[in-house]
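Look over this record as teaching material.
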Amino acid sequence: MPQDDPWDADASREIARPGGKRPPTVPDDRATGPEETPDEEEFEEIEVVPVRRELSLAIAGFAGLLAVGLALGALTSAPDSRMPYAIVLFGVQLLYLLAWVMALNPPAAGATAGVCVAVALVADYLAVSSAQAELMPLVYVTAGGFVAALIGQVFRAEDRARLTDSWRTTLAIVAGVVAYAIPIVLTRQENGTQTLIVCAAAAGVALVVARATDAAFPKPRIAAQVPRGVAGVVLGAMLGTLAGAALGSFLVLPFTPAKGAVVGLIAVVVAHLVDLAVNFGQAGRQLAGDAPTFWVARHMQGPLGAFALVAPAAYALSHWFL
């Protein structure tokens, strides 16, 4: 029977024959350039962001100052004199607001910043003067501030267009501002002051050691676009946990070296995760072509965000673990 299919028996035998070669092709004289091969494909080279030694040391110093301020403020806060501590924390809240608003650029940035300043004042006042030292009033302030910030972002059309994508950014800014009032609440509770001191000391040691190690030995790199090294993160986590265990051996019950190590480890993990998330966020914005933010705000964002999340972690550990 005739086979109209081009894949006839002879062609099949030719293809199945081991070592069979394709028939030679006649070069085309009309070709205008060299023949391309897969080996000549060009791939975009990944730019390795250099690690700036002076900048890493400056961020380490800033993280250390934050840790010392939180710990000493909690230690020296008297029962009837917590207003100085609240004033110090209000300054930290303003720094957090400046850094995160300039870095994340939420819709209606001016209105959002104004709402957050009012939220910070209300949260600090409630933390100092409320009849009972509880977390729920701060949760209500966070919810009210978030709703007020969203309302301020719906007046202009360009802000409304970004609202569905940026509400998480707004919530992070408002919640971070309120979180710095939690240390005041902790100083009014039974085990809160000791827990806050351990968490601040452990997180501070971890961030300082990690950033200082990046200045000397930023290897192996976490990512080419992120100027951080794995050695610093691991060494900071180890020494931060050790600092928590050491403080646990000096503090009174219910603290023990083992409990101090657990509290310190959780604070270290929280601080490192937030700090690294900020670094990856900055790298992502640069790769997307977004305009870089003010350099001071950009580099303060990591430590400020880390201690903002350490505060609610310390509150949870004080109530559910200790």
Strands lie at 221-223, 226-229. The first helix runs from residue 9 to 16.
